[in-house]
Design a protein that fits this description.
By secondary structure, this protein is of the alpha/beta class. It has one domain (18-154): Rossmann fold (3-Layer(aba) Sandwich). It contains 7 helices and 5 strands. The protein has a 5-stranded parallel beta sheet with strand order 2-3-1-4-5. Helix 3 (64-84) runs parallel beside helix 4. The structure holds adenosine-5'-triphosphate and magnesium ion. Adenosine-5'-triphosphate binds at residues 20, 22-29, 45, 91, 93, 125, 128-129, 132, 134, 160. Residues 26-27, 43, 45, 91 line the site of magnesium ion.
């Protein structure tokens, strides 16, 4: 690489939300990108109220009403980071457009990174994952809920994207990195 980008004079604060269905790799890739950038990483799973965790563990999909307090907590986390001018990476499925709207409200400087992959490839990954409370059977309901974002709403990447490629895409967005 020879064409270095000029440093941004006044970088915008930014928070990247890695989204997609269970097993897409939000936690794995999000944490790796955060580590590479030296940004803190937050896993959306850790912000679920205990009732939601119990529901998922029992194999029951969450309703929109279940997700509302969870999204509110994540929205507050993102807003705090942006207000302090401290970047961060968050993993959050954000499957429906209304969920993304709730997270985005007033949070200029937030960008979604959508990890896109088909049911079969993601199902294979989930089948190999043992240490997690999300049973693979919930994947169908995740795909049923998924309203895929387009490129105007998110940076859309394949589930096999590399850490370096994601960071390159951030930087190609210019000063502040993310819109
Ligand atoms: N790029 C990759 N290549 C191969 N396997 C991967 C990759 N990224 C993640 N995995 C594996 O796929 C499985 C799912 O990844 P991960 O737990 O990060 O998904 P997730 O989107 O966070 O899911 P959830 O919503 O259930 O938390 C894990 O076993 C992980 O090790
Ligand atoms: Mg995860």
């Amino acid at each position: 690489m020879t064409s270095a980008q000029p440093p941004a004079a006044n970088p915008q604060p930014q928070v990247a939300v890695f989204m997609g269905v269970s097993g897409a790799g939000k936690s794995t890739l999000g944490a790796a990108v955060a580590a590479e950038l030296g940004w803190p990483f937050y896993d959306g799973d850790d912000f679920h109220p205990p009732e939601n965790v119990a529901k998922m563990a029992a194999g029951n999909p969450l309703t929109d009403a279940d997700r509302r307090p969870w999204l509110a907590r994540l929205h507050a986390l993102i807003a705090d980071h942006l207000a302090r001018g401290e970047p961060a990476v968050v993993a959050c499925s954000a499957l429906k457009k209304s969920y993304r709207k709730q997270l985005r409200a007033g949070n200029q400087g937030l960008v979604f990174v959508y990890l896109r992959g088909d049911r079969e490839r993601i199902g294979r990954r989930l089948a190999q994952r043992l240490d997690h409370y999300m049973p693979a059977g919930l994947l169908d309901s995740q795909f049923a809920d998924l309203e895929e974002p387009g490129s105007s709403e998110a940076i859309v990447v394949d589930i096999d994207v590399t850490v370096d490629e994601v960071i390159r895409l951030f930087r190609s967005r210019g000063a502040g990195g993310l819109k």
